[in-house]
Amino acid sequence: MPDSILAPSYTNLFILKFLDTSAPRVPGLDLMRGIAILWVMLFHFRFMISMPHALYWPARYGWMGVDLFFVLSGYLIGSQLMRPYLKGNTPSLAGFYFRRAFRILPAYLTVLALYLAIPGFREAPGLSPTWQFLTFTENFRINYGVDQAFSHVWSLCVEEHFYLVLPLLILVLMRKPHFGKAVTLIVGILAFGIFIRGYIYLHQLRPLLLAGNGDFYLRYTESIYYPTYNRLDGLLVGVVLACIKTFRPIWWEKMMSRGYLLLISGLLTCGCAMWLFRDRFVFSATLIGFPVLSLGLGFLVACSISPQVLAWLQRVLPGRRGERIRSLSAQCFALTATLAYSLYLTHKEIAHLCRVHLGRYLQSGSWSAVAIAVIASLCVATLLYLAVERPFLRLRERISTRQPRPAAESAVAS
User: Fold this and answer.
1) Residues 382, 341 contacting (CB under 8 angstroms)
2) What's the helix, strand, coil split of the chain in %, to 5?
3) Residue 171 CB: number of other CB atoms within 10 A?
4) Cα distance between the two ends of the chain
5) Model-level pTM?
6) Can you say whether the dihedral through the CA atoms of 185, 187, 188, 194 is positive or negative?
7) Does residue 168 surpass a pLDDT of 60?
């Protein structure tokens, strides 16, 4: 059964030779990752450049791209860690942490070094203490009113905490696996997030709001939006998808055979979340908006790998011309997805530099302003990938080949 929107054979030669070191990709997930990073970039660019009016609405909701990243991470990492149990094995903690370290740390530390060494590289003057970046505690301790440089690393902190805890949690749960225990944990995590956000809002933030204190928005960012314990919904939905695929294959097959329903459900649920978040800072959105958004994004991620949607695309784009369009689209998705991590680390800094040195072009409110920022970000991300990310990924593969490869390792999750 095909497991991608676009046939992976179209992308292999380009990606494997130029960008990637892993096995064939899953273009449906590449599409989701590409949408996520471009959406986040639009959100940040709206504060740095003058954008066309047509982009105002998608840019306004661009912060949701981070939640899409969370759902993807939950699904991919969860699948990677659960798959060995199908063969009676357990995932290797050392192997998992080793591969994550080689994936995340080289590019991250390189960009952090640039922030520390070159003040002009920063998109804002204030920078948090170095130890907060090195310990991935920036999302808990940031003083957002003063230290906004490299603040977007908050989501990487959430991911790192997820990488640290999930393997241990799975090992504990799988000692005596039970469906009811898993459901109880899922509901408990969901309820905990709703409760803690509600408590913080009512007891810490609402008094500021009622008093007309302008610090409300800064405190909301620091105490609601950034902390890991408030942002588990997307990761949870992704892990639930991985659980269904791994341990309930019949359920998964039924889902995959209903790609249209997944698509419609995802769009409607995300639309509902956007309606809730028409004001991001109200109590109702804070309480239930994040779970609703994550559920909708989970439907869309599942839809992206549905064979039914693949068949629909082949009907919409038939023949040799349609094949060429699908091939080109798949390569574009794969390129953007491969560069997504480097893009995320550097796009705010590059937009800042463009604003400083090309300000008159970026304040025109035209599509060319957006094109300049996007192209410059892609060029720098490509440089970071080729100079840092790819060499360390290849080194990781060389080291890994000297040892038995864990069955759980998948190309996409890597």
Assistant:
1) no
2) 75, 0, 25
3) 13
4) 22
5) 0.91
6) positive
7) yes
